[in-house]
Amino acid sequence: MDLTLTPELAAFREEVRGFLAAHADEYEAGAPKDPKAWQKLLIANGYAARTIPKAYGGYGAEPDILKSRIIAEAFIDANAPRGMAGQGISMLVPTLLEVGSEEQKTRWIPPTLNGDILWCQGYSEPGAGSDLASLQTRAVEDGDDFLISGSKIWTSTAAQAQMMFCLVRTEPDKPKHEGISYILFPMDTPGIEVRPLKTMTGHAEFNEVFFTDVRVPKANVVGGRGRGWFVANTTLKHERGMLGDPNATEARLKALIELMASETVDGQRIIDNPVFRDRLMQLQARVFSMKFNGLRTMTDETAGLARMIVKLQGCELNHQVAALAIDALGELGILYHDGPHLRAKGNWQRNYMFDLGLIIGGGTAQIQKNIISERGLGMPREPKAVEA
Amino acid sequence: MDLTLTPELAAFREEVRGFLAAHADEYEAGAPKDPKAWQKLLIANGYAARTIPKAYGGYGAEPDILKSRIIAEAFIDANAPRGMAGQGISMLVPTLLEVGSEEQKTRWIPPTLNGDILWCQGYSEPGAGSDLASLQTRAVEDGDDFLISGSKIWTSTAAQAQMMFCLVRTEPDKPKHEGISYILFPMDTPGIEVRPLKTMTGHAEFNEVFFTDVRVPKANVVGGRGRGWFVANTTLKHERGMLGDPNATEARLKALIELMASETVDGQRIIDNPVFRDRLMQLQARVFSMKFNGLRTMTDETAGLARMIVKLQGCELNHQVAALAIDALGELGILYHDGPHLRAKGNWQRNYMFDLGLIIGGGTAQIQKNIISERGLGMPREPKAVEA
Amino acid sequence: MRFALSEDQTLLQDSLNKALADLSPLDRVRRFADSDACSAPDIWAGLAELGLPGLMVPEEHGGLGLGLLEAALAAEALGRVVAPTPFLGSAVLAPLALTLAGSDEQRSRWLPKLASGEAVAGAAISEPIAGAREGAGVSADGGRLTGKSLFALDAPGADLIVVADRKGALHLAAAAETAEIMPSIDATRRLGELTFRDTPAEALASNQALERLRDAAWVMLAADTLGAAQAMLDKAVAYAKERKQFGRTIGSFQAVKHLCAEMAAELEPARALVWYAAYAFDHAPDEAPLMAAHAKAHLSEIGRFVARTATEVHGGIGMTDLLGLHYWFKRIGQNRQLLGGPERVRETAARLQGLIPA
Amino acid sequence: MRFALSEDQTLLQDSLNKALADLSPLDRVRRFADSDACSAPDIWAGLAELGLPGLMVPEEHGGLGLGLLEAALAAEALGRVVAPTPFLGSAVLAPLALTLAGSDEQRSRWLPKLASGEAVAGAAISEPIAGAREGAGVSADGGRLTGKSLFALDAPGADLIVVADRKGALHLAAAAETAEIMPSIDATRRLGELTFRDTPAEALASNQALERLRDAAWVMLAADTLGAAQAMLDKAVAYAKERKQFGRTIGSFQAVKHLCAEMAAELEPARALVWYAAYAFDHAPDEAPLMAAHAKAHLSEIGRFVARTATEVHGGIGMTDLLGLHYWFKRIGQNRQLLGGPERVRETAARLQGLIPA
Description:
The complex is a heterotetramer, with 2 copies of chain A (388 residues) and 2 copies of chain C (358 residues). Chain A has 388 residues and is of the alpha+beta class. Chain A contains 12 helices and 12 strands. Chain A has helices at residues 7-22, 35-45, 65-77, 86-99, 102-113, 228-242, 246-262, 274-299, 304-308, 310-329, 347-360, 365-376, and strands at residues 27-28, 31-32, 119-122, 138-142, 145-152, 163-169, 180-186, 192-197, 206-217, 221-222, 264-265, 268-269. Chain A starts with 6 loop residues before the first helix and ends in a 12-residue tail after the last helix. The mean pLDDT of chain A is 92. With 358 residues, chain C is α+β, with helices and mostly antiparallel strands. Chain C has helices spanning 7-23, 26-33, 41-49, 68-80, 88-101, 104-116, 126-130, 209-242, 254-283, 288-314, 316-319, 325-337, 342-352, and strands spanning 121-124, 137-141, 144-153, 160-164, 170-173, 178-182, 191-200, 202-203, 244-245, 248-249. Chain C has 3 domains: 7-116, Acyl-CoA dehydrogenase/oxidase, N-terminal domain (Butyryl-Coa Dehydrogenase, subunit A, domain 1, Orthogonal Bundle), CATH 1.10.540; 121-203, Butyryl-CoA Dehydrogenase, subunit A, domain 2 (Beta Barrel), CATH 2.40.110; 209-352, Butyryl-CoA Dehydrogenase, subunit A, domain 3 (Up-down Bundle). Helix content of chain C is 55%, strand content 14%. The model of chain C has no long low-confidence stretch (mean pLDDT 96). Chains in contact: A-B, A-C, A-D, B-C, B-D, C-D. At the A-D interface, helix 8 and helix 12 of A face helix 8, strand 10, helix 9, helix 10 and helix 13 of D.
């Protein structure tokens, strides 16, 4: 345990802070005034696409978890916007770097990084759910092309994206994990229909995407035909790790404490209600636990199990923080959409519902527990059921 | 919903109260001065063995749930001891009445009812646990007798009992549920060894019983050879229902409220601590729920599911009541055994542990949930696993 | 002595469930929820045919003259289909207020109209029960009301409003100066923000009527949650029996089965509590306030558990608008907070037993 | 910057675990638990060889001069095998009290003896931290102590006792007038009921030393629970992999797997919290009190969950004395209540952040 910064790291932190101060007029309330310009500025200074080779439009630095953390903290402190995220940058780019052809890398990574191409992800299907590998969207050979038919669900940004990276079944006769390919295509290819998917929050955070004989060149397969399951799995891990970000949880708890200290019922501050305060303290202990667990997963090579539980515990904790906010607000906690009495734009209710979605999505709590018990604790897999 | 008493029932209640008042000098602090005499008095007046035919030593009344309840309440109010319980009276007698031969009934029921014979139960085995039907204790034919070898566990009162009713495997080649017989034998038969089984409470509430070539006449089988599984199951249901008795829970909650109202920390009453008080109210709502659920199961024919959840919820609730008592007592809550500061003879800690045992015993919480989902909600059984 | 519904009560329950299945199917709920309407005239008319608006109105005023237990069964049936209709304010609280504290003239004037469904009544009683937020609260002076009342039940569009002032006294007002809909998570029932400015109102005799209204409302909210939660469990079980994953119906996975078993294990005893709380309101007034408080608080807690768990059993699809499951989720969430969240209600439960020093 | 144990710390942890497996196997624990002994001289001697009694004693007084993080690792290792030995009072609190508030003479007199294990020290600090029960509490007057202190740690049989009086000032007493063992659920560590009657004692300089003792003790109790709970999880997993029911190892049932996953999911982040709380005690004094409080309260809660759940995974056998699982269950239960249950400790956590008006 050594949580003090080396002089080199301390200097680096000053550098980041200096950058943010110098460019403070280019962002406002956590958002860049010109998103693409901001993105380019960040890449040029190593605060976005930091470890991606210069040849592909990145900054080309060595990976360094501590510097990444220093950057993250400095941006939070300054309420400065990070670089663009999105599934193209956080999931497709790492995949291409690992298994893409040279041509794929040079063609797709630079415009993705600088924000010229927005991607969406075509993994889940209505019939598959937790059993992702049973996906049915078919890619049938037709000369040098595939003709893709089927549908995808839970596709965020499908309406805005120019491109999709997608899992399709190219070899229907192989075992289910071995017949899948990972393929790229433009969203304006004929035969694609996008339908918004409204969730319980009242917003269409997702879409369904339908394919009818969508023609895509075979050359667009990434990582080899029939290898799609393994290609996708390398990046799914990244996604699951992101879903319990303790920094975000800590920020929400801070907002909750402020809420409870400022709101009153019959003139009594909510924070002075011992029952709510006790729950707040229980959650605070959990927030600290997840924060330190997060630090540990970054720097402790013995922290395998600690990494595996992040999604399960982090999403649950976010949901519980939102639940306490709603409860503490009393009747005001049910307000939503708009109106003069709404607090925080209704975000507590929205998070309460959306976070429940995250508990379910990206591997349900039940699937997470299977993974923890099998891979983390070495317990036996569910025996194969006798076919009825 | 009609919770008022009919005039007939009101008169019956007066009768019971009158009886208890008239015999108040025959019991003290909830215990009879002469247990056997008390038992005989109760049977003679219909307050024990109430619905068992006179021919077998009972009182011979028609079953009447409401009268039973009136009797129960009057005895609680007067802090008067009920009749003898024990596994002979509550499990063997109903079994014999249902499937015993006339000879078995006349021979065993009367002395069991009046307390001359104490029974113990030989069901569970160390290797079987929740999978009761996989029991291994063998009864091998030898002329008109069986020779029984094997062992049983969780046998309470084995050291005091004169007789055992026991499940043994008489047909080893049949499917596991069809090879079991239900058999009776004296505990002083040669080849029986009883070893006390100490639990986490520090007391030996149970025993292990070992059999080596214990000779028992075939005539002692009850309900037919190979029928033991079905014979035992009729009475197991009774046992599971008993394990969440809401009257007992209500009495414990009352004691907890008194504890919290009388104990102080730094001079402040525990009941004045809003956090503990809130937990108390949560439990009280559950206690009332289980109480009314209990009333419902007795008089509402649509209450099948309501009956099925009693063991799961009742045992958990008892455990939670004890947990709150321990927490409310603070450091005093860890005291045990004896000493000047011990509260309620250590019963809160003892119940906390013993009730956890009841959550596990008599069908673990996991088994209960299987039953509720399959029989109560009609969900599919676990598919048979492929043998490895 | 029998702890079970009578034949009449079972009949009422069945006929309500059957009628509501027709009156308030999911697409009707959706249409209401997506609109700005204050009520659904077709549903209201259908319920009026069954006598629901007059369930608790004495027979001499054209109602059915039934008790709170029957009203609880109705609330459960409404919650079961998340019926977009006034009920608690108009069919329970206003008739109760008039019966308990109205003059003969006031009763004769209003009860028949309420019973027939011709008039709808709202109830603005939040502040003295759940506590005042945002400086809300109504003051009465010489037959006139001034101030704000939030979270008024069935109030937008109502013809009559029962108002509790800051001191807990009750008044009848024909209308507020302004009545705005307060947009909330549950789009199946409208809450009102009422402003009074020297608004004329008639006083109701005040013999602790507000406490009775509170108890009745708490039981009704609990019953509504019971119905909605039971529906969510039923949907979860049905979905789990049908949906396949990994080559099996998901209902054969122990994890899914146990979630369903836990929901059932929570709901069954809660049903008995709600029944008894309603019964006590009608027949055991000494016990009624405590039982109402426990029913409200306990159903709030297990309602939340069931709402969340049933959604989880549905997986991703449960989160979307496709099955409309969220209408039930949100209705339960709103019942939890209305007229006091469970923490506040439990404080009342403790106070009612003398466990909090005065 | 690294959030992980150093090589030295890992080494310490490994060597302690290895030594304790030999020194404190289950049958040795059982023998101690069944006896009236105040300590197990063989275990104490073995620990002394490793330097454990002097872990926190400065090197100039013959100790190892290590910090609270190393002590937390030791506590975790002791909890893991429910070691029947003094530790918290003698190896942590007394050395800390002397280092923080003792005179040079007091340190020279006692620290070497404590470091070598020649002397054992107890700590009687319950009343000002956990609140006074049964009228307990000690008053100091002119170098003499009078009163009672309950739940004194490592106190029965000790050669030296650090006493906190009612006002929170610390004293050194050679012995109490009487020191009775308080029989408690956990038979692996002895608690004392101490009576002082004009008992001579030396004052320790009082610069908020009691608060530091409290923080250290809270972290140690959390670490002990962490070790014991981790051991219970390990045992549950091992048992579930071995035990067969219904023709399968029970560890292949989803219900059992999920119980184990839930335990692991609770314990992993809790481990990071305990480490950080100990680190903060050594290096970030501003954060230390809050982190200590959270570690104590949170480990109390999840410790209870793990103790219960691991027992359930074992089924009936877990309830018996046969596997001795209950020693872990009870150790965790006792740690929960010692020096304040989680509810009380969370109040302190809130107060430390200014969330409770003074």
